[in-house]
Each structure stands twice: as C-alpha cells, then as structure tokens.
Design goal:
two-stranded antiparallel sheet, 5-stranded antiparallel sheet, Thiol Ester Dehydrase, Chain A, about 140 residues
C-alpha cells in the first residue's frame, strides 16, 4: 500500500463547501501516479518502455463522509487484482482517522492503437500485485 497526502483546494469544492463528487476520482488518479512512482516508475516511462497505455475502463466511488476545503486527506492505494490484460486498484480516502470514501478503478492494458495486450510480467513484478486494502 502507498499513501498520498492531498490538501483540498477551494476549486475542488462545490457550492455546499464539500469536495465535488467527481474530484474524488482526481484524488485517486494522483495517488495512482504516486503509487507507480513509489515502485520506481513514472507513467510516462512506462508508456515509453512498454509502448502500452492503461486507460480507465471502470471507476467507482462510495462516499461515506464529505471532505471539505483545506482538509488534508490521505489516499491509500493498492493494486488489488491483476488479470491478463487489466489491473484493478483499490482506494481509501481518510482524514485523520475518519474514512471519507472508498473506491476502485480498473485499467485495461492496450497498445497505442487501442488493441488489448497482456500486461508485461516485468511490470507486474515491479508493481507488486496482490497487496490487500481493507475497504
């Protein structure tokens, strides 16, 4: 599991002063980038080295408590499942000890023309698939 801290900016909030629902997916994306970086890769380098992309093909968020402007939130992320040509990441968003949201994203592995490809074994080894995150 990798943890990423994010400070909620005013532009992340809606008229009610809470984080706009779609911005939780942005927080997940930021954590995913940091997860990949913590494993010794940058997404840009992954694309260049393997010639592959990992577009989101499924996303879900379960909202439990609102995050608000200026909150310091932590996104916990794990690579929870890998199939031949897809990977699933699980997320927990917390503030202090409070669970704010959980979610997941599923990413297909495709080449630059959009054709499904098997995820390279070397990449899986570097990412450490199979860690568990209590959702």
């Amino acid at each position: 599991m990798v943890k990423t801290e994010i400070r909620v900016i005013y532009g992340d909030t809606d008229q009610m002063g809470v984080v706009y629902y779609a911005n939780y997916l942005r927080f997940f994306e930021a954590a995913r980038n940091e997860f990949i970086r913590a494993k010794g890769l940058r997404y840009r380098d992954f694309e260049a080295e393997y010639g592959l992309l990992l577009p989101v093909v499924e996303a879900a968020v379960r909202y439990r408590q609102p995050a608000r402007y200026d909150d310091l939130v932590t996104v916990e992320i794990s690579l929870t499942e890998v199939r031949h040509a897809s990977a699933r990441f699980g997320y927990r968003l917390v503030r202090d000890e409070a669970l704010l949201a959980t979610g997941h994203t599923v990413h297909a592995c495709v080449d630059r023309e959009g054709r499904i490809q098997r995820i390279p074994r070397g990449l899986l080894e570097r990412l450490g698939a199979g860690e568990r995150l209590a959702l």
